[in-house]
Amino acid sequence: MSRVVVARGMDLFKIVRRALGYFGKPSRERVVLKPNLVIDRPPPVTTPVEVVEALVEYYRENGFEVIIAEGSGWCDTFTAFERLGYLELVKKYGVRLVDLNVDDFEIVRNPKALFLKEFEFPLTLKDAYVVSVPVLKEHSITGVTLSLKNMLGATIGEKARIARKGRFHRSLNESIVDVNLYIRPGFAVIDGRVIGIGGELGARPRELGIMIFSDDPVAADAIGAKYLGKDPLSIRHLRLAQESGLGTADPDKIKIVII
After folding, report:
1. What 3-state class would DSSP assign to 173?
2. Which of the four CATH numbers 3.40.50.11440, 3.20.20.70, 2.40.30.170, 3.40.50.300 does domain 2-258 have?
3. What is the pLDDT of residue 161?
4. What is the DSSP letter of 248?
5. Could you tell me which of 138, 167, 166 has the C-alpha nearest to residue 36?
């Protein structure tokens, strides 16, 4: 049975350490943290830098190399890094920031993919333990944008000033599943302390006061969807993800640990 830890509290660094203690250590030496920096607007549109900092501290203390990687869809990625405080993590911890929009890549194929039979796999993510770190947020098309949809940013960007991930919107729910088939996160951390209501780029803040952790990103998103008042199995990409073997979307088959 998939396990999801839901944590409450004020000390973010203590919460991260305690919650991650319920799960095993990463299986690889290099950890890539993938926040949601779809645009250079402050939280809850984007992932707060302090969440990523708490994860950087935890993984570095446990001997892992840590990279922060994103491929912004609606602005230049390094503009988002700078405006949202991520450059400070370079100064403080020496971590590397990577723009996945322009990363080197290799072509991989999966005949079982629903839409993306061929995929440009960013080499920064190859042989890495990927942690998807989104905000708990609604989406106008997919209902929610959580750890699975966050992975659309973990892709090579189109040569455009904006809408660099526009190709996925031709079959959005299927594309979300396919990207995760190619790059399934080893872990999901969803920041629900202040959630985003009403849309993806202009989300209105609402305090909820939780953090969600799981080594099953589908289960993490399913519980996140419930906190947003939605039936996880009514969210098309979550249902398709479960059917594709990516994880568990049925809340009745998920063990929730409240800490």
Report:
1. helix
2. 3.40.50.11440
3. 63
4. -
5. 138
Quote the DSSP letter at residue 26.
P
Closest CA to 182 of 98, 250, 241: 241
CA distance 8 to 192: 10
Confidence (pLDDT) at 164? 78
Count of other CB atoms within 10 angstroms of residue 112: 9
- Alpha-carbon span 71 to 84, nearest angstrom: 14
Both tokens assigned to 107:
């072509």
Would you call the peptide bond into 44 cis, given omega within 30 degrees of 0 as the criterion?
A: yes
Residue 237 confidence (pLDDT)? 98
Model pTM above 0.85: yes
**62 DSSP assignment:** T
Residues in the chain with pLDDT values less than 50: none
Q: Give the pLDDT score at 162.
A: 65
pLDDT of amino acid 170: 87
CA distance 136 to 207: 11
Q: Which residues contact 8 (CB under 8 A, 6 or more apart)?
A: 209, 210, 211, 258, 259
How would DSSP label each residue in 90-136?
Answer: HHHH-PEEEEGGG--EEEEE-TT-SS-SEEEEEGGGTT-EEEEE-EE
Both tokens of residue 198?
A: 């009403």
**Tens of pLDDT, residues 195-206:** 999 988 888 999
